[in-house]
Design brief:
It is built from eight helices and 19 strands. The protein is α+β, with helices and mostly antiparallel strands. The strands form five sheets. Strands 4-1-6-5-8-9 form a six-stranded mixed beta sheet, with helices on both faces. A four-stranded mixed beta sheet has the order 10-14-15-11, covered by helices on one side. Strands 13-12-17-18 form a four-stranded antiparallel beta sheet.
Length: 335
Amino acid sequence: MPQLTDDPGRPGTWMTPQEYGASRATLWTAAVVLVTDPDGRVLVQSVDYRADRLLPGGAVDAGESPAAAAAREMREELGVEGHYPHGLAVDWIPADTPGFPPEMGFPGEILHVYDGGTWAPDRIRSVRLPAQEVTGIDFAEPADLTTLMEPADARRALSALRARIAGGGPALLEAGRPTTPTALDRLGVLRTRRTPQHGAWIPGPVPAHLPVRERSGWLFAPDGRVLLLVARATGAVRLPPPTAEPAVAAFALGYRYAERGALARTAARLTAAGPTVDPAYARLLATPEQVRELSDWGAAGHHELAAVHAARARLSLPAPPRTPPTELPEHGIRW
């Protein structure tokens, strides 16, 4: 910061208060809130002044903090009281962003995205819309945000959602794009619709009379995280086949019953991850909770997650803290 002086003849980096004030950038400030339902869909609202959808929120008033603005906007727009202390992203929106009329004099904006958490059905039913402005709400599949929202708004919402799942702290964005992308960002996770697997969770092996439609494995690394495959072309995630990597102590964990057969799950402890065999997939290590949040498993998802943690304990592995998923090297790794 330059030294300030009231003497305009002072040499060097000295500036008058007026000069320094005139040199500073003027920006708008706004705050929005990202809310999901138990199935991982994102709350978006329809408004009476534009066709595309928005996250709830709006402009920060003079003298108001961004967090206070987020709480006020949620109260005014959805009739919901809340406190939102956890940030997911801070986005810099440049002054030349398309869509702002020249007469508006848009100077650029700093937009804060706060974590509104996961709302249970009772909280969703408590929403009360105002008489004007907000005309409705929906919970959208993350991949559908790109068709429902303006491109920059969709990028921001997806980046914030990935930051929440990654658990590495708020993302710094420029026009909705992370300045330091995580593995989830680089691979474009959640840009395509998740495959629903809403069948009931049934523990134990698949009965002999049931056809098995798919076999997949909860393959645990020594730190308690599990192997996750991400299609590089689409960003779609899936659990690996149970024999995808060298593993020991395998056992049948359970299955989901689907119309055309069972989706069988095995648990095992990884001893290594070999060199990449299929370059179409990236291999990540993620917590079981992150795998669930990136999947569409319906109401039975928490039953499967409980079984996964029981399997981890049976394999004498630690409970992993939430950290950003890490991509395994192409040459593999041994433990």
